[in-house]
Amino acid sequence: MSLPAAPSVCPACGVGPRRSFELSNGFPLLRCPECGMGWWDFPALDPAAFYDRDYFQSSDAAKGYDDYASLEAGLRITARARLRRIERLAGRAAGANGHGAATLLDVGCSTGTFLDEARRRGWDVRGLEVSDYAAGVARARGMAVQCGTIDDAAPADASLDCVTLWDVIEHLRVPANAIAAAARGLRAGGVLALSTGDLSSWCARLSGPRWHLFNLPEHLYFFTAKSLRLLLERAGLSVRAVRREITWFPMGYLTERLSKTLLGGRRKPRRRGGWVVPITLFDIISVYAVKRP
Ligand SMILES: [Zn+2]
After folding, report:
1. How, if at all, do strands 276-279 and 160-166 pair?
2. pLDDT tens digits for 82-98?
3. Which of 85, 207, 244, 256 would staple 211 via disulfide (CB 3.0–4.6 Å)?
């Protein structure tokens, strides 16, 4: 299987990159001098094989489910906040497409929590997910989910009211193609919403190579608001909002992460759940754009 390797010029502005510091995998971070977008010289690996092998194998099924269940409440709060923003933008649109419920495609839908929240709010939903395992979980929850990428299964016609890509774009080999395919699937006035890490954030700048979103080798690209704006505008979309994301986590999860960081995981927290609290390092951005007529 031949897959596109890392680009030699910035996918957003076509300018050759400068070498920045060395990442934890030994590759230098390549950065565009114009828009600040970063990437590394990633090899041609099959992403489907990668996610099958590593993503869900490391923890046994019982533990995985425990972790997931403890994060679920927070994921749902985040999903509802995102949907409220989409509905404000698609607003008139959502009810005004003239033929029933507004349609939403979630690309990289994982186990379907966002789709489930959208469905509860009246959206007609479907998902795309590269992990066979996660797609199976979503289907078991009653969601219409196809296993694949947006390149394999691009929306056929310009009829969708919304396409979402939450924490997906940084994993893709040719992000401009994925954005173009999503844009083609939208009707005029439809909303494209995505989230990703912001390489120009203060957290990323202060952390250097230790930034927690230099998650390698899964993350291939590291975006900035400027690079995303260029990519989206070129695909025929108008950016309406760029927001710093606030996400919600259970206290148990946070104390566990903290004890791992500070105490090397020596003390085991009593429970993983508990109150769900908002947290942000102001280094994840969500972008909401509307397809131009
Ligand atoms: Zn650039």
Report:
1. unpaired
2. 999 999 998 754 444 45
3. 207
